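We emphasize that the prediction below concerns an isolated chain of 150 residues; any contacts that depend on oligomerization or on bound cofactors are therefore not represented. The input was used exactly as deposited, without trimming of termini.
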Amino acid sequence: MAFELMTFILPFLFILALVYGALDISSVFRNKAVNALIAVVIAFFAVSNAGITEMIIGVMPWAALLFIAIFFVKFVLNAFKPGKEGRDYTLLLAMLALLGVFMASQGTELINDWLPSGSPISEENFILIIGIIVILGIIITAYNIQTKPK
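Result of the prediction step, given as a token string:
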């Protein structure tokens, strides 16, 4: 079952999603059922060829990383773009909390790579400064969530 999943189902779903998304965005056909039917047929044709299936299996990890990076960039940009009701401080609070968890999990190893040699600031002091900034950002964001008009 795991072999069939990797060689047929995952490439099929990948091609189906890409083709359906491309057809939906381009609005070549206005009918969503037609877009779905065309996407299913193209996905079946794609997975029926062993060379295409091997290529898709080789590309899928890189495509997943690209989609995650695009999602993250869009996620961060949405946090700073004001919507109809103003800026979404809950999203900003979640991002700051995740940044705090990331910094706490990395310790001084990550800071050692960032700081130039001979820097007057030690790794512990740099982490303390970033931590204070993140905590102040969380407090300010939480305050803005509480005072936001409803």
